[in-house]
Amino acid sequence: MFAPPTFLSESFDFAALDREAAGIVALDAEGRIVWLNAAWQRFASANDDAWIARFGPGCRYVDAVEPRFRAPLEAAFERVRRTALPFEEDENGAAPMLFPAQHLRVLPVGSEGLLVELSEARTTLARATQDPASDALYRSPEGFVLQCSGCRRVHCAGEGWHWVEPWVSAPPPSTTHGLCAACAGYFVEQTRRARRQTRDDRGPR
User: Fold this and answer.
1) For the chain, what is the radius of gyration of the CA atoms?
2) What distance in Å separates the CA atoms of residue 17 and residue 22, rounded to the nearest whole number?
3) Which CATH superfamily is domain 14-121 in?
4) Are the beta carbons of 23 and 184 closer than 8 angstroms?
5) What are the pLDDT digits (tens) for 133-147?
6) Contact of 24 with 117, CB cutoff 8 Å
7) What pTM, to 2 d.p., does this model score?
């Protein structure tokens, strides 16, 4: 695991993010990659030995995407920094080349950093709501499907959290809720931001 730089917020559990099936990178204020998880590294190794050098630490994230999507993506990054609110969309050229179809999510980290998460879009499980056997990978031994209350992804044992599109608006039967590591970090950080703002609004005593 790459060690996250010191400027990144302690609100996020980077060890847990490193175990995710989603490809995750952290960006600095200039949009350069400063941390990447194991899934990102595995994907790079499986596709091209030079890929990690081109789209790894020190590289600007937007340089890895299709040119026509760079300006909209930079605008989205700036909006997340300014508002501290997440941005997400189904990937349409906003992921680095060679990645499969993805669901893109961007979260604020620290004062100016960003966390970029690429979850593979699982659209082939549309039949899962009719065929209980098809969702077995997502059920606990007790028969529950765990869905993140924040991002709506579902947990897959041994793989982390998946974006299963049919279940976003219509979760399967016996769904329970929790938080993935990225959402947990985000909400902890939002709470800390709110407390700091409250202290600043009150002023010195």
Assistant:
1) 18
2) 9
3) PAS domain (3.30.450.20)
4) no
5) 467 888 888 999 999
6) yes
7) 0.83
